[in-house]
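User: I'm writing a short report section on ligand binding and want a predicted complex to refer to. Could you take this sequence and fe (ii) ion and write out the structure as tokens? A short remark afterwards would be nice.
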Amino acid sequence: MNEGGGREGEKFELGKVGIGAAAEGEEGAEEGLVEGREGREGEEGRKEEKEKTDEGERSKRTLSENKFPATSKCEGRDLRGPRLRQSAPTRSPEPSIPGKYGDEGSPCPPYWVLQLNGVSTSWHQRIAEHVVKSSLCLFQEPDLVDKMVMEDEFDRSETLASCLRRPADGDSTAVYDYSPGKGPDGVDPFDLFPATPSVFVSTPEEAFSPQLMEFCLQKPIVVVRNLCSVCDLDLSLYSTKALVESHPNHPVEIRTQMEQTANENWDPTMTQQVWYCTSTRSYSTIAKYAEYQAANYHEACIEGQERSVNPSYDFSSKATRRMIKFGTNCDLSDDRKWGPQLRELLKLPAWARVASPGNMLSHVGHQILGMNTVQLYMKVPCARTPGHQENNNFCAVNINIGPGDSEWFGVPNEYWHLLNDMCEKNGLSYLHGSWWPNIKDLMTGGIPTYRFLQRPGDMVWVNAGCVHWVQATGWCNNIAWNVGPLTSRQYLLALERYEWNKGQKFQSIVAMVFLTWNLARNIVVTDEKFYQVIKSTLYRSLCIIAQTLKLTKELGVRRRFHGRKKTEGAHYCGLCEEEVFDTLFVKENEKKHVVHCLRCARRHDRNLRGFVCLEEYHLQDLLDTYDNFRMSQS
Ligand SMILES: O=C(O)CCC(=O)C(=O)O
Ligand SMILES: [Fe+2]
Ligand SMILES: [Zn+2]
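Assistant: Sure. The structure tokens for the complex follow:
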């Protein structure tokens, strides 16, 4: 199946369409990086744009700008908040938290997810209601589909005819319905600090064994100790020294945060523990951050007379807290710049690699920064990554380069909605906001929390949907990326978050419909459930396309075949930021063509006057893909 090739219809030129994010030149990316300075072109320009969008100023995007949802891996949100005042803390009693480093000496506990009875059903129900409420009307008149006369291209395909007959839910862009799910078994609501699944690998055979992969796929979060050493990974390639020597002027995002222990999260006035996590954003370079990281270390050595890379802090006698800097979301995607670093990662087992045939994110066909590319984190003690789930619930691989440790907290996916509620109660947006969970609140809420240290050379596997937050214990760098195992669980959790994001006006960084069609073209599925859910998304997608095309016919909208380039990214509506697959609506007479989804276009003009419908695929090709996607018996 060729994408946009073959039968070329009438072409509609839309200005320059190409790989935006990846095409950044060394010069452009490294020029003029002064910490805190705003308004740069290129990558930061896009970040600025994302920030604006986050702030609610939904600026229209043109088709060519819309290719790559350039993203920060975990914090593609605006975390700008009130500046912290450095004043004496008003002390509240230290929470007493049992089971601090629960992983020690307990390699694999018998259970992994805990579920409080009844929770699962009610939250699924709530999401279902939410999706129905926020369901996007494809057609203003619900009976419009019935009025349509079936003819020509629609008549020729039974599948399409059935798509047009599909009633009511054809009004929604949802490609996935929530249904109340059964919670996991093995409930132990009393163990709120379960031991972290942890594996020590001693040989390459163990590292490459299918058992290790299976183990990781069955736990919410796993720390794989000694993996890098067994795989002979040269971690010195990612040391601050090596990074500075390679590309000193490479950009890095800076988060300015308050120095505090992992059990604390003070409000800006230091009067109480809160969920809001102050983390103001600016930009710098690797060299400048390296200087800061080294100076911070030497300062600590002088102050504490202790030369540990994992200092033990006691802030109780300190009247003020310092502000510290965290170098985060540093993009290592460019293999012309970071070839040695990226090649080294090929030594990892295939299921943990940045790219592999068994990784859904390798079937996207273009770069999604920080997801199917590597990101670097440069830390000093107390630098923290606030709470989050990965974009579209994909899995994450994180390696600690050292020399210090990172401390991790994780909550199984089944409890995310409770964290969502707690964020809301604290006036914070779960998806857009920046928050640090209060451990006592988690205990009170019956939320089991994993807590463990990641030492240099340890890999942390964050399974699909696991909520996590991380604080540096010492001075260290980390590298991380996302992975999408080809399993029905991963696929469904990604799709579930895709639909939830629509209701929350949060852009899905992974365009799931686009990805699903690619999967249908590229992979062979032997698992019945996985096959069924993919096939169902394809069908729902076809229904939306068929009904949209029928409507354009009814309304006399001009249709043009636009096609797509091989590495072109997915399209998003320039107004609502939802994915737009196949049928893009653009205004006929505008120089810069902003992609509209059907709903936004119809909001502009109910009868779509002045719009052209650009088709990305030939309907017949999609139908062929649909028909040819069959389950393999073997
Ligand atoms: O190392 C960090 O602080 C980032 C952790 C994280 O969120 C990830 O790797 O997914
Ligand atoms: Fe993460
Ligand atoms: Zn829209």
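A remark for your report: The chain has 19 helices and 18 strands. The chain has three domains: 13-17+74-178+504-628, 22-70, 189-485.
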